[in-house]
Description:
Blueprint: H1 9-17, H2 23-36, E1 43-46, H3 48-63, E2 74-78, H4 105-112, E3 116-121, H5 155-162, E4 168-173, H6 179-185, E5 188-191, E6 211-216, H7 219-229, E7 259-263, H8 273-288, E8 292-296, H9 304-319, H10 338-349, H11 352-365, H12 370-394, E9 398-402, H13 418-422, H14 429-434, E10 438-445, E11 451-458, H15 463-476
Parallel strand pairs: 2-3, 2-4, 7-8, 7-9
Antiparallel strand pairs: 1-3, 4-6, 5-6, 5-10, 9-11, 10-11
Bound molecules: glutamine.
Glutamine (GLN) binds near residues 129, 174, 176 and 177.
Amino acid sequence: MTDLLFAPLTDVQRALESKTVSSEELTKDFLKQIHAFDRLNAYISTFEEEALQQARTADKKRASGDTSPLLGVPLALKDNIVMTEGETTCASNFLKDYQSPFDATCVEKLRNAGAVLLGKTNLDEFSMGSSTENSFFGATSNPWDETRVPGGTSGGSAAAVAAGLATAALGTDTGGSIRQPGAFCSVTGLKPTYGRISRYGIVAFASSLDQVGTMTHTAEDAALLCSLLFGKDPLDATSMDKEVPDFDLSTTKDLKGKTIGIPQEYFTDALSGEIAQVVTAATKEFEKLGATLREISLPNTELAVPTYYIIAPAEASSNLARFDGLRYGTRAKDVYGLKELYAQSRTEGFGKEVKRRILTGAYVLSSGYYDAYYLQALKTRRLIQQDFHTAFEHECDFILSPTTPTTAFQKGENVDDPIAMYLNDIYTVTANLAGLPALNLPCGFDSQGLPIGLQLTGKAWDEELLLKAGMLYQRQTDWHTRRPSLTEGS
Ligand code: GLN
């Protein structure tokens, strides 16, 4: 086995460039590792033949002088991103046999850059959850402690990167689904600004909140992927035509002149004492880089979870109406009549959490309750956006907070308590509601050896500053280089 299974993308890239390893060898090693740690259930499907074929093609191209940035690099994709290989299941019984006739724009971009696509990673059904337990294909385990959840919903992607089952992975983030599993598994996770990466080919959950993002070993890896994935796509009207930033660190050696806001509302009793301590210690590293810390207030923070859990289900109930038993996936058998076919197909196809969201969403949008719930939620969303706007206008360049209130919890611990599960998202949903970029950085461990993450939230379109701050922090610390001690076969 090569020692590149746990290496950052930039190292893998260099090893391939210098021909220290071929993509075929590397891809075989990753496939071996995936089989050896099948028990983590990080992948829903792998495309072994196709991946090896892509690897051989990459090796040939390199031999003839091709220098595409991801040439031969093995990556994984969350299984709500469509591609022509295999099935795109969204971890749902409804779509367990669904084959996409086309590639998502982000997949096309990865292919054009030469990537090898190993397979599709596990998630909570239709990206609804915080633990990757709501999967038709069973829960994913956290590589740091297999009795615990990896976080969700991109838990399969986080576990895959943490366990050396892919060099990097794509996830999606509607309310924290990249950053929270990033924090639970010690993975660097970026949710870009809404509109930065095309959503074309991402199975929609809540269209005004969904974003594709990266899960990597380092902020530098994230910058590399972002430079390839960012940009306007004519197939997604909400993607924006903004210049792709320059992530080169040679122009930014420190954070002198930058002010980091520390939101007091994020450091309350809900936050574990150990996380508060570790995150506070991390702020000192940013001070050493020359930044000034400043306590700020985001007064509407407590409205974020209720607001999110009205808007996201409302949009989900509308988006998921397309799954009717006629057009996609599962079709109930032995039913007569159209209504019965809809009802039975949806009853059989969707899991419990998805049904809960559809019911909540339909309720808050119904004529009698629209004003009381949905309209109010739109107003509080605006207040939350305004809080960030004020902070960035007058007080700070970016914000530093914990990513999650606790470290990874036990499997089964929160499955029967949706409110407890939803409260995991208190620090992450705000960035989605406000459309802002946010980055999880591994920053330490609790007394049980479980990873802790900190979150940097930036101004719209300012991923550049977040990633540069992340790169500088990772030059100074080694939390992101720690790996779980995994034993084969147990
Ligand atoms: N945990 C949140 C939810 O269940 C966020 C999910 C996500 O970001 N896809 O909706």
